[in-house]
Structure formats: structure tokens, C-alpha cells
Amino acid sequence: MKIEFNPLILALSKIKNLGKKRIFKLILKIKYLDEYSLSQLFEEFELYKKITKADFEFIYENSISEVEKMKSSNIKIYNIFENDEVGLFKDKLFSQNKVLTDEFPNQLFLINRSDLIIDSFKNLFTIIGTRNNSADAKDITEKIVTFLCEKQSIIISGLAKGIDTIAHQKVVDLGGTTIAILANGLDTIYPSENRELAKNILNKGILLTEYTFGLKAEKFRLIERDRIQAMLANDIVLIESDIKGGSMHAIKWAKKLNKRIWCFDMNASGNKEILNNYDNVIKFSNIEEFINKFNVNS
Predict the structure, then answer these.
(1) How far apart are CA 71 and CA 94, in angstroms?
(2) Are the beta carbons of 185 and 179 closer than 8 angstroms?
(3) Domain of 16?
(4) For residue 151, is it within any domain?
(5) Contact predicate 81/5, CB 8 Å
(6) How far apart, in Å, are the Cα atoms of 230 and each of 69, 202, 266?
(7) I want to staple 178 with a disulfide (CB 3.0 to 4.6 A). Which of 121, 164, 171, 198 is the partner?
(8) With pLDDT > 70 as the criterion, what percentage of the chain qualifies?
(9) What is the pLDDT of residue 91?
């Protein structure tokens, strides 16, 4: 049996207490995957410390079936160990992040009906914010998205309620391109009221996740989703957030990755935290100021 990366990564991810970073390091040890049998990988990876050989073979066979099911559903699968035509891994977006590669998702599942190819993250803007947005936040989000779409930028967000939904919907209304990063498998849409929006995003954009079928959005997955939002874009725009809001995870990643952080100057605790305690944040109070500073920094 020829071993392939995607079923193997998927199988390893289903083994209890075998984390993403460990999986990356294990597979990185293998120079030529086609020289190994499944039994040899079981020994090489010392999986006998966690699972029986029979159980591993069963999981791998199921993973092959799951990969085939995804392909039949037009879900494309990419991984960090092979080149991909979308432009996510090798020598493209993720590799431009100045961080250890074991921080990247090992594997991504995409619905990309438009066959969008991403050449550079310089025209990618991640727009994030609270689920319980103010009227001012909604207004500035729509104005920023309108301007960025005119500049042929791709808008990234997380399909959550509030600012994410406002950003995605405005892009769709304008006929632009947006990427929704999910914190759950592609067999469901969370929140459910955004199913129609998700379908409309696919006219020109992408639905993307690092989670397989059956995995629901949980707190730790929402946090992991936030890191991808920061990794994929050169610019991260915070519209409105409480200091304990999920958007702050994306901002922390953006700082770690040395991305440009934009912050709307408004009376929200997360915004105040960033403006008062983060260096080199691009502050804006209205769309005119955003446009002026965009022109300076572009």
C-alpha cells in the first residue's frame, strides 16, 4: 500500500494526545514517504506507545475513505509537506511568516469553487471584531471593506456573528473576494444562520479550515482559527473588541508575526488596550484617516 501524506496526517491527528506540532516533527523525519510501509511508520513514529498497530491501520484506512469523501464533495486538501496550487504553503503565504513552521496548520481543507489562486499576502486584509458590534463599528467596517474591494484586496474573516458577518456580507454585496476561516469541519457552518452567506462567499472566494468532518467549533478551535487569520494576511484590522474578546488572540498573533495592525479608535476595552500598549499600531478614527494612512503604507 502506497502511503500518502493527506490520509497519514489525518490519521495521526485522530490519535489521542498527539498534537499538531508533534505530528509535524514526526513526518519531517521521513525523507521519502514512498519508501515506508504503514507498519514501518508505526515503528518509526513509536506509535505503539499510544495505540495498537491494528487500531492505527484501522484509523488510516478510515482516513483514506474520509479523504476520498472530501474529494467527491469538491473539498480540496493541502498540506505543509507538498506544493499546492492555491499558494498557501511551500514558498507562499505561510512560509513568509517569521515563525517556526510547526506553528502552521499541517493540513487545510478548502472549498474553492472559483479556483482562486493567492499570489501574495500584501493585498490580504484580515478584518476582525466583536460579535456584539456597535452601530459605529458596523458603519466603519462597511466603509473599509468598500474601499479595500476597490483596491482589489481580498478580505479575510472568521464567519462569526457581528463584525465578521458584516465584513463578509459587504464583500459579497460588492462582488469582491473574501476568505472565511472556519473553526469547525466543512460539513457544517457555524453559526447556522450564515449558511447562505457561506454559499455566496464561494462565488469568488474560499471557505477554509484545518478541521475535518464532524469537528464542531469549540473555544480552543476558535483560538486556533485566530492564528490562521493573522498568518494569512499582511494587515490585520481590529474594528471593535472587548479586552477578553476572541479578536485579541488574532492581534497577539499579528504582533508575534510582525504584521501591520490597524485599530479603530473607539471606546472599547480591547481597542484601548491595543492603542495604549502596542507599538506601531496604525490608529484611525474615520474612513478618511484610514484611506490616507493606507496610501502612505501601501
Answers:
(1) 23
(2) no
(3) 1-72
(4) yes
(5) yes
(6) 30, 21, 22
(7) 171
(8) 100
(9) 66
